[in-house]
Structure formats: C-alpha cells, structure tokens
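Bench log. Compound arrived from synthesis this morning; before running ITC I wanted a structural hypothesis for how fe (iii) ion sits in the protein. Inputs:
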Amino acid sequence: MAKLNALLETEPDENTLISQGTALLTELIATEDWLPPHCTCAGPDRVVHHLLYLHPDDLYSVVSCVWGPGQTTPIHDHTVWGLIGMVRGVEVTQRHGFDAQGLLQPLGSPTHLQEGTVDAVSPRLGDIHQVWNGVADSNSISIHVYGADIGKRNRHAYLEDGRVERFVSGYVSLPEVNNQ
Ligand code: FE
C-alpha cells in the first residue's frame, strides 16, 4: 500500500491515478499467495466483499470480491473511482449508461476480464455495470481498489423494473490487522 499512498500524496489527476494505479494493481494480482485464505471464500447466494485494507483517513479501500458459481450483481454504480484486478477466474462485465430519454441501456457487449487484467470505473469513465462470474463451476476473485471506504458508501442498484434502490455493500470480513 506504500506505493499507492505515495501516488495519492501527489494528488494526481484521474487519468494519472488510473494509469499508475493500474500498474500497481497489476503487480499485486500477479500472484495470490498473499491473499488470506478466508478472503477467497464465496457467500452462499451473492458476491461478497472481504476488506483487505482501509486507509486510516478513508482515502481508499482494498477489497477482495468473490463470486461463487452462477452469482451475479445487480446493475449498480460505485460513485468513486475504482480499479478491478482479476486474480482468479473470469468476471464478465456489462456496462450501462443513460440514453437521451434518461433510460438505462447496455453499452456495447459484455467484457470478459481474464486473470491479470485490470478494469476501471468512475463517474467520469462510466460507473454503472453489472458483473457476473464467467466460470461455471468455481469461484472468481478480483481485487478492487476504490477511492473511499466502499463498504460504507451510499450506492445505487438499478432494478429490472426501473426502480433505483439505494444500498450499502458492507463487508463480510475485516482485516485482522489493518496495517499492510
Ligand atoms: Fe462494480
């Protein structure tokens, strides 16, 4: 985390943050032997977030997201910049955006994020997507870095019937020692 702290201390613009942050996350996800075993565990019915690190001033959080077989998210936003690095398996992402009538529509085709790949979201780059496990019979795991304490952030889920629901994702587990 020291390298990310150093990067954020330079107060980079978002393009610099995304490109240099992507390089740092690519390094991190090259192996998964550093990942605590409990942070590779899926939940019974939906994607889970294990908190790995929270900056003491809530400047950013690092999370292990685990999808079990067949699990998918609702269409949702993040409201802050985020980097998503695949450490195991495949995640499929479908981006969405509002059309001229203000209706949410899929943007392009789904993207398959393979191991070692980093994707980015932000209100400026495009912040709304739906994600599901691209592997039928095992967990997929990605390491996410967000520019806030994402587990406490007020976010939005866009339901199929057009309703928008506020949600706070929380964490299913917290780090034993928050000093990495
Ligand atoms: Fe997301």
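What the model suggests: The chain has one domain: 2-31+40-173. The pocket of fe (iii) ion is lined by residues 76, 78, 129, 131 (CB under 6 Å).
ITC booked for Thursday regardless.
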